[in-house]
């Protein structure tokens, strides 16, 4: 229910012809305090038109306006203050939430249209980084939000499993590696070989030649090259899956870069046919001067393809396979240029749907305000972060609620949820600092705080014997504290819409924090479980809070334990 529109319509009826609906809507303000009403209309812009003092206009409006659905409407100086009929609207909203439950806030913006989301996409034979964590959790939340407004998201993990680096890795493994070592500790060992390769090729440039040859073999389907590559890939994937399991995130496709190996020739042919390929120092490029971009390098001198070549094939494949209405790429800020080039080349090829491709960039995670850097020793390993967060959550639960039945499970939900929430509450373009203690606190702007508020709501309901609500129930709540909670609940559908339109999970995270805060204030001021004629209404409010907090957390990919 759009209350602002309701006020606008009432005003429009008395001001008929003097001012447009849109203008009234624009002028309406939210007073700082509920004591001044829910909305205020300033009459001074009308003074010129009506040739009257604004104070007089305000009084006249109050005399003539239809007061139904308002508790009162009063003139205060040049303002008209509107107090909505709290009892009427609370009842209306609570009834809706209780009836729709988790479906509250669902809407149809997408008509079921397909939206592939390129997300997570770590590189084989390297540890999954905090940057990949951001892509994973932001992408996952966007997928859930899209689903809520009736799009069909398809989560694609575009694994970095192809490219010249695999030539280097195979060469390094052949020189220094062993099967047992890799089996014992795949990611670390593979990384070690790779790093060693980069140290040794400074003095031994012939290594680079060998590596190039291995990659060529790989691209040509050589049996040994393929076997090693497949093995490295499988080991890496195993360790990635462990992390995805911890995060509770699943994918619809693991078609990584290698998947497009046999689909690039067609792209290159298309570019040739359209005379878009130019030779530059032996390499094949597409000139993008028209777009103020550097040329896109499609094929190297030795014929090897590149990252962007595979992305071109992937974009075309996704259009064919999913006939998408939008195609999203949740990838760090630093690849902005790459995606501009990708879209520009597709545009050059006459693919109008390139406009439906959106890069969803995000900022960096820092530590002590500084960029993470392997060389400076500022590395954060995702798996350790998650484990440490769970440990901290365990300690807090042991202190607060030592008798909790399923302590371990809850500690997992809280620890992992805290890390995800911390990431998502920041606007995605902002860089943010990672401090584990801060992330897992039960108070303040944290995931555990929201989870705790939700658990408080469900425990009140439990104490009340989990009352059953019925659509014929009538609720009456008219105090300011409950009204603050009700208006927050009422705004949930609009919040979801804004979050989707801006591809911005932080909108939901901030909303959840505000709702939790309003609920805790209500809880501090109100005795809920007192047997009087409003108890059912109060419990309906608590129930609605638990539903909407649960749903907000779900949209972020965070679990909501019933007790903690
Ligand atoms: N593997 C890349 C990286 O770690 C990210 C891939 C993003 N997706 C894409 N279609 N380019 O930097």
If you average the pLDDT, what whole number results?
93
* Count of helical stretches: 22
Sheet with most strands? 4 strands, parallel
Which cofactor or ligand species appear? Answer: arginine
Q: Which residues form runs of ≥5 with pLDDT under 50?
A: none
Straight-line distance between termini: 34 Å
Give the CATH level 1 class of the largest domain: Alpha Beta
Q: What topology, given as strand order, has the largest sheet? A: 5-4-9-10
Strand coverage percent: 5-15%
How many distinct domains?
3
What name does the CATH topology of the largest domain carry?
Rossmann fold
Number of strands: 13
Radius of gyration, rounded?
A: 29 Å
CATH architectural group of the largest domain: 3-Layer(aba) Sandwich
Shape: globular
Q: Helical amount among residues, as a percent range?
A: 40-55%
Topology, element by element:
Elements: H1 3-14, H2 21-27, E1 39-42, H3 44-50, H4 54-64, E2 70-76, E3 79-84, H5 86-100, E4 114-118, H6 130-148, E5 152-156, H7 164-176, H8 179-184, H9 186-200, H10 206-219, H11 223-247, H12 264-273, E6 277-280, E7 283-286, E8 296-299, H13 307-322, E9 327-330, H14 336-348, E10 357-360, E11 365-367, E12 370-371, H15 382-400, H16 407-425, E13 432-433, H17 436-440, H18 447-463, H19 480-490, H20 492-501, H21 505-525, H22 535-556
Parallel strand pairs: 4-5, 4-9, 9-10, 11-13
Antiparallel strand pairs: 1-3, 2-3, 6-7, 7-8, 11-12
Helix pairs in contact: 1-2, 5-19, 5-22, 7-9, 7-10, 10-11, 12-13, 15-16, 18-21, 18-22, 19-21, 19-22, 20-21, 21-22
Bound molecules: arginine (ARG).
Arginine binds at residues 118, 121-123, 158, 160, 311, 314, 329, 331.
């Amino acid at each position: 229910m759009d209350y602002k529109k309701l006020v606008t319509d009432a005003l429009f009826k008395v001001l008929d012809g003097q001012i447009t609906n849109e203008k009234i809507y624009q002028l309406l303000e939210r007073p700082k305090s509920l004591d001044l009403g829910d909305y205020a209309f300033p009459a001074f812009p009308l003074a010129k038109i009506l040739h009257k003092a604004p104070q007089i206009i305000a009084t006249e409006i109050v005399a003539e306006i239809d007061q139904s659905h308002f508790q009162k409407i009063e003139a205060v100086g040049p303002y008209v203050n509107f107090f909505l009929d709290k009892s009427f609207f609370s009842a209306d909203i609570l009834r809706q939430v209780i009836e729709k439950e988790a479906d509250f806030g669902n809407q149809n913006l997408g008509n079921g249209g397909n939206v592939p989301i390129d997300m997570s996409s770590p590189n084989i034979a390297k540890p999954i980084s905090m940057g990949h964590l951001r892509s994973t959790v932001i992408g996952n939340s966007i997928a859930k939000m899209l689903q809520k407004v009736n799009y069909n998201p398809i989560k694609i993990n575009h694994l970095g499993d192809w490219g010249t680096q695999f030539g280097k890795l195979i060469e390094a493994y052949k020189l220094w590696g062993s099967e047992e070592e890799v089996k014992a500790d795949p990611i670390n060992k593979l990384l070690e070989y790779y790093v060693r390769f980069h140290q040794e090729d400074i003095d031994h440039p012939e290594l680079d030649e060998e590596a190039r040859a291995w990659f060529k073999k790989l691209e040509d389907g050589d049996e040994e090259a393929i076997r090693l590559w497949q093995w490295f890939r499988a080991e890496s994937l195993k360790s990635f899956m462990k992390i995805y399991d911890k995060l509770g995130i699943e994918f619809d496709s693991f078609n990584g870069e290698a998947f497009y190996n046999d689909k690039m020739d067609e792209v290159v042919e298309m570019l040739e046919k359209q005379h878009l390929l130019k030779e530059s120092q032996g390499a094949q490029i597409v000139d993008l001067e028209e777009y103020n971009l550097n040329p896109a390098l499609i094929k190297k001198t030795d014929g090897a393809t590149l990252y962007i070549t595979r992305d071109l094939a992937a974009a075309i494949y996704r259009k064919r396979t999913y006939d998408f209405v939008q195609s999203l790429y949740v990838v760090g800020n630093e690849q902005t240029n790459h995606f501009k080039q990708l879209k520009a080349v597709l545009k050059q090829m006459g693919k109008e749907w390139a406009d439906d491709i959106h890069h969803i960039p995000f900022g960096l995670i820092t530590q002590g305000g500084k960029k993470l850097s392997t060389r400076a020793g500022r590395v954060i390993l995702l798996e350790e972060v998650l484990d440490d967060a769970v440990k901290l959550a365990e300690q807090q639960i042991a202190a607060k609620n030592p008798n909790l039945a399923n302590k371990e499970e809850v500690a997992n939900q809280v620890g992992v949820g805290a890390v995800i929430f911390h990431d998502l509450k920041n606007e995605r373009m902002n860089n943010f600092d990672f401090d584990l203690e801060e992330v897992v606190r039960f108070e303040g702007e944290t995931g555990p705080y929201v989870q705790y508020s939700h658990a408080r709501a469900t425990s009140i309901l439990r104490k009340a014997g989990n009352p059953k609500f019925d659509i014929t129930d009538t609720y009456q709540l008219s105090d300011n504290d409950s009204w603050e909670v009700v208006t927050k609940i009422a705004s949930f559908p609009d919040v979801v819409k804004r979050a989707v339109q801006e591809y911005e999970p932080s909108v939901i995270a901030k909303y959840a924090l505000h709702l939790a805060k309003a609920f805790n204030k209500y809880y501090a001021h109100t005795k809920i479980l007192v047997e009087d004629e409003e108890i059912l209404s109060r419990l309906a409010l608590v129930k609605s809070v638990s539903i909407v907090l649960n749903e907000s957390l779900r949209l972020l990919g965070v679990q909501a334990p019933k007790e903690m």
